[in-house]
Amino acid sequence: LCPAGLLPLCSRVWGSGARERAGLPPAQRRAFSNNKMLVELDEGSGVATVKFKSPPVNSLSLDFLTELSIGLEKLENNRGCRAVIFTSAVPKIFSAGLDVTEMCGKSTEHYAEFWRVVQNIWLRLYGSNMVTVAAINASPLETPSKLPAGGCLLALSCDYRIMADNPKFVIGLNESQLGIVAPFWFKDTFVNVVGHRIAERSLQLGSLHSAPEALQLGIVDELVPEEKLQDKAAAVVAQWLALPDHARQITKSMMRKSVLDRLLTHQEEDVQNFVGFISKESIQKSLRMYMEMLKKRKG
């Protein structure tokens, strides 16, 4: 039997039935939900699961990102939460990325508000003390109406990425296809994951990589059958949580601090650069043409 004081350790070694084998009731699962996502925390293991549920494609709108920021803040402030698995409740789509409609035909004030929320999500996720794992349901080749880049950024910001093994699923930072330039902190995150040469080529071409290509390039760490995605994510989290938190957290901070500090130092400048760039008529025209193309494709 496992002494009550050692239950967190026993749960990691024995799995979810540790409390029952110790003669105690099952650990409580706490959940909070909103219109965009479901967050479940297993208090026994300290592992939370964030399920995106904003059909059809979990686009990263201002509302979605705001709700995600609130959810992450709640988990960060909960000392019992040590890890987060990000996945999707929408079949076969993790996130089709930043919502193009938030960047087209709006006021400069709206663009600034939207970009600050995008920045804050990345700062919170990339700098998180928690173990973060992306269980990527992926995006189909015919992405319906959004920009895959933002969904890719969320995954790149995690500690580990597991993708559904389906050659029709794609992932990448494809801004250049829309005439948009990936900001420096998107680029820095990508370089840190795959290296300079692969990132440079992929960003210039705006490439969307199939699941096998993503594994080969190092964009994702593993491919598994989609039905095994959640089990594999749980196993990976258990492996990471077997390490002392402080050593892992300090190492993570040491590896990522310079990239985080660069945005923190230039945060408002980055907002103004984004607003100035996205407000250009040539960029707005490109985005309008892209949305028209998508409407015709859906039609």
Account of the protein in words:
- Pfam families: ECH_1.
- One of its GO terms (biological process) is fatty acid beta-oxidation.
- Its main location: mitochondrion.
- It is a single chain.
- The strands form two sheets. Strands 1-2-3-4-5-7-10 form a seven-stranded mixed β-sheet, with helices on both faces. A three-stranded antiparallel β-sheet has the order 6-8-9.
- The protein starts with 6 loop residues before the first helix and ends with a helix.
- The N terminus is likely disordered.
- By secondary structure, the protein is of the alpha/beta class.
- It contains twelve helices and ten strands.
Q: Please, how many helices?
A: 12
Low-pLDDT windows of residues: 1-25, 142-147
Overall strand count: 10
Largest sheet: 7 strands, mixed
Q: Name the shape in a single word.
A: globular
Q: How would you spell out the order of helices and strands? A: HHEEEHEHEEHEEHHEHEHHHH
Report Rg.
Answer: 20 Å
- Which whole number gives the mean pLDDT? 87
Percent of residues in β-strands: 5-15%
CATH class: Alpha Beta
Could you tell me the CATH topology label.
2-enoyl-CoA Hydratase, Chain A, domain 1
Structural class: alpha/beta
CATH architectural category:
Alpha-Beta Complex
**What is the terminal-to-terminal distance?**
61 Å
Under CATH, the homologous superfamily reads 2-enoyl-CoA Hydratase, Chain A, domain 1
Write down the domain tally: 1
Strand order of the largest sheet: 1-2-3-4-5-7-10
Helical fraction equals 40-55%
